[in-house]
Amino acid sequence: MATCQFCGRKFKNAQAVRAHLRGCQAYQGSVPKAKPIGRTAYIGRAVPQAPHEDGDDFYTEGLVRTEEQPWSSDQSSARPPKMDKPEGKWEKRARQQMEARRQEGQQAERQRAAREAEERRRKEEAEGLRRRRQAIQRVKDRVIGNWWSLQYTIPSETKARAYQEIEQALSTLPVEELPESELVAIAEGVRDRLYRPVMAAQDDAKRQGEQRRQEEQQRVLKEAERTASKEEFLQHGYDYACHVLEDVEDLDPRDRETILRRVERVLERELTGDGSEDDVEDLVEDILKEEGIE
Fold this sequence. Notes:
Elements: E1 2-3, E2 10-11, H1 14-21, H2 25-30, E3 39-42, E4 45-48, H3 89-145, H4 156-171, H5 180-246, H6 253-270, H7 277-290
Antiparallel strand pairs: 1-2, 3-4
C-alpha cells in the first residue's frame, strides 16, 4: 500500500500514487510542478531517471521513488529503501484545509437533503389535506346540497349548522381510508338529527292548519245554516203574527201595521237560527200579549 502525502488517499503501490498526483487538487494547489531533468538525485548521488509506465519522464521533489520496474543499466541493481518524507507545516495546513472543505461539503449536502426532505413532507401533507377537504366537500354536497323535498322547507340556519357539524364529525376520521359510502352514512345521520325536528314541527303545523281550516269550514257552514234557519223563523213568526191578527175584530189597520213591525224587530233581535217553529210562535204570542192581544 502507498499513501498520497497531500490528500491522504491510499493506493496499492507508489506508481498509482504518481499517476494520482496529476489530478490531486491538494498537490496541484500547494506544490509547484517539478521540472523534468535527465538524472535524478538520490542519497547524495545522481542516478538516471527511470521512465514511468505512463510515458512521463520527470522527477517530483518530495516524492519517494518506489518503482518496481528495473533501474537503468548504469544504476546499481540494489533497490533503494522506502522513505516517507515527514509532513511539513504547509502540507499539514493543506491537509487540514482539504478536510475542512470536505466536512463543509458534507454538511452542506446533509442540509440540502434535510431541506428537500422537509419540502417533500410539506408537499405531501398539503396534498393530503387537499384530498381530505375534497372528500369532505363531496360528502357535504351530496348530503346537504343535493337534498330537497316537496313537503318540507329547511331553513338556511339549519343547513348551515348541518354543514358545520358534518365538517366536525368527518374531520376526526381517517377520511382517506374510509369508503365514501360510509362517510355519506355518517353525514346523513348528522343531517337527519338536525332536520328531523324541523320536519316534525312542519308536520305539526300542517296538521294544525288543516284542523283549523276544517273547523273554519264547519263554522261557516253552521253559520250559514243558522242564518238560513233564522230567515225561515223570521218569516214563520211574521206569518204567524199576521194570522193571529186577522182573527182580531175591530183592529185598526194602522195598529195592525205597528204591531207587525214590532214583531219583526223583536224576532230579528231574539232569533238565532236555533230552536224550532214552536219556540218562534211562543215568542210571537208573548209580543202580542204585551200589545194587549190575547
